[in-house]
Amino acid sequence: MRYIYMDETWDLWFSENIWNSNYFLMVFLLTKYPSIPEQIIKKIFKWMKKNNVNNKTWFFHTYKERHNTIITLLDYTYNKNISVMTCYIDKRKIKGKIGKDIHLLYNNIVCKLLRKSINYWVFKWEKIKLYAARRETNKHLNRQFSEQIKDSCKDLFDVDVILKYPSEEKWLQVVDWIAFALYHKYENGNLELYNQIKDLVILEEEYLWYEK
User: Fewer Cβ close by (within 10 Å): the C or N end of the chain?
Assistant: First the structure.
């Protein structure tokens, strides 16, 4: 059994009227050991208690954490049993070209990255559990997402798609701060956080808007 936990940074919309990101990144965290985040989170809270860092929610989100906390999160995340893949879009290249169905494009990016994993990490016909952060309350969109992912990989492996809130699945919190580090590499050219996890990254690839 293989486990993939996915998250994304920012969104696929581009607006001239409000500040938005230049890049969209889809990030996969891959592992065979679903119990690892329990160890990571335990170490982090031990560090927080020692350094008088407050976290009343027992939940981590990088956009709410202090810089030194994020550095510690990434430091404790480094583990030889974890691999990372990312597919990114430079939104300046696709402005006005991607059509209206943002949800379909999002699904296509996930499908491409999942199929790429067969070249780097997954053996053919292995069982995969793909955990995704729940983005929509719309049942139709959630069903469409799950069905498209399963159908796109049915010739390679069997995929179970599981939608969870990050508060329900600790791995989704871990991939959030890895995605945060990758985002700052592309958006700001800041490698400080990325350098902490770069040895875990097995694939960084651009998704071109005209790809199927």
Answer: C
**From CA 190, how far away is CA 183, in angstroms rounded?**
9
Per-residue pLDDT of the chain (212 residues; tens, 9 = 90+): 889 999 988 776 655 545 578 889 999 999 988 877 777 777 777 777 777 666 555 555 666 667 777 787 788 777 778 899 999 988 877 766 555 677 888 888 899 998 888 887 777 778 899 998 776 667 888 888 899 898 988 888 889 999 988 778 888 888 888 998 999 999 999 999 999 999 999 999 998 765 54
- Residue 124, judged by CB atoms within 10 A of its CB (0-12, 13-18, 19+), counts as exposed
**Is residue 130 classed as helix, strand or coil in its secondary structure?**
strand
Interatomic CA distance for residues 54 and 147, integer angstroms: 41
